């Protein structure tokens, strides 16, 4: 299920070759709540409407889980490091590969 993260659009009139042109500038909402699923958003880098590509990366929360488990269960401390659910979800633009958002595992 995709959440449409497109915010209000801002219109701006510019004069180009003596013709008034109305530009619609997509505005990214300030507080998109990214999940682990791809989102449809405007990329601030290339200004395309894109569906984000989600890449799972090792984050602070995942390392913290491993550290918490380390003194109790030596072998089990690697489990959080191997679990995709414990990773941070990084949303990338498929066009320009810029990071457009992130869902951290524990730390926001
Ligand atoms: Zn982009």
Structural class: mainly beta
Write the element-wise H/E pattern from the N-terminal end onward: EEEEEHHEE
Strand-residue proportion:
25-35%
Runs in which pLDDT lies below 50 for 5 or more consecutive residues are: 1-8
Task: Name the shape in a single word.
Answer: rod-shaped
Helix content: 10-25%
How many strands, what sense, and barrel or not for the largest sheet?
A: 3 strands, antiparallel
- Rg, rounded, reads 19 Å
Assembly status: single chain
Strand order of the largest sheet: 5-6-7
The strand count comes to 7
The distinct bound ligands, ions and cofactors come out as:
zinc ion
**How many distinct helices?**
2
- First and last CA, distance: 22 Å
- Mean pLDDT equals 80
List the helices and strands and how they pair.
Elements: E1 9-16, E2 19-26, E3 40-42, E4 49-51, E5 53-57, H1 60-69, H2 79-82, E6 88-92, E7 99-103
Antiparallel strand pairs: 1-2, 3-4, 5-6, 6-7
Bound molecules: zinc ion.
Any overview of this molecule?
With about 110 residues, the chain is mainly beta. It has a domain at about 35-105. The chain contains 2 helices and 7 strands. A hairpin with a 6-residue loop joins strand 6 and strand 7. The two termini are about 20 Å apart. The relative contact order is 0.21. Residues about 1-10 have low confidence and may be disordered. Bound molecules: zinc ion. Zinc ion binds near residues 46, 48, 93 and 96.
Note the main attributes of this structure.
108 residues; mainly beta; three-stranded antiparallel beta sheet; two-stranded antiparallel sheet; 7 strands; disordered N terminus; binds zinc ion; metal-binding; LITAF_fam; LITAF; zinc ion binding
């Amino acid at each position: 299920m995709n959440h449409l993260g497109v915010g209000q659009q801002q219109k701006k009139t510019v004069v180009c070759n003596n013709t008034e042109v109305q530009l619609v500038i997509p505005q990214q909402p300030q507080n998109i709540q990214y999940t682990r699923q791809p989102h449809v958003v405007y990329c601030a880098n290339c200004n395309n409407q894109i569906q984000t590509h989600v890449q799972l990366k090792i984050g602070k929360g995942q390392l913290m889980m491993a550290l918490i488990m380390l003194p109790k269960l030596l072998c089990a401390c690697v489990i959080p490091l191997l679990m995709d659910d414990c990773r941070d979800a990084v949303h990338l633009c498929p066009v320009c590969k810029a990071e457009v958002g992130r869902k951290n595992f524990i730390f926001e």
